[in-house]
Amino acid sequence: MTTAESRRPANDNKRWRVISVLVFSSVLNYLDRQLLPAAAPLLRREFALANRDYGALLSAFSLSYAAFAVPAGLWLDRIGLRRGIRAAVALWSLAGAATG
Predict the structure, then answer these.
(1) Would the CA dihedral through 42, 68, 79, 29 be positive or negative?
(2) What gap in Å lies between CA 20 and CA 26, rounded to an integer?
(3) How far out from the chain centre does Cα 21 lie?
(4) Overall number of domains in the chain
């Protein structure tokens, strides 16, 4: 094995960092989507929600999530994935910080 073969390109480390950040962001995104069901007892007690009301809340979340999927995809196609991910992570972080 020569020296050139044993060296790893500098881009490999950068790629792994990017992949790690994307995986971490995706995991947080999926966890955020599961917060409503996990917080069901607290939400129902705090806001005196009946089963029907809580079901409407979950439906509203799911429908709005689905309604924005296609426009978000078109927006990402227009501005590019790199800028889109940065903007999405920034907006999601601000929304999380604003809501506590």
Answers:
(1) positive
(2) 10
(3) 12
(4) 1
Q: What is the pTM of this model?
A: 0.63
Domain limits at 44?
8-99
Per-residue pLDDT tens over the stretch 27-65: 988 887 888 888 899 999 999 999 999 999 999 989 998
The pair of structure tokens assigned to 78 is 């227009």
Q: Which residues make Cβ contacts (< 8 Å) with residue 76, sequence separation at least 6?
A: 84
Structure tokens at 6: 């044993």
Written as six digits, the tokens of 57 are 């809340």
Check whether 4 has a pLDDT greater than 80. no
Residues near 92 by Cβ (< 8 Å), separated by ≥ 6? 28, 29, 32
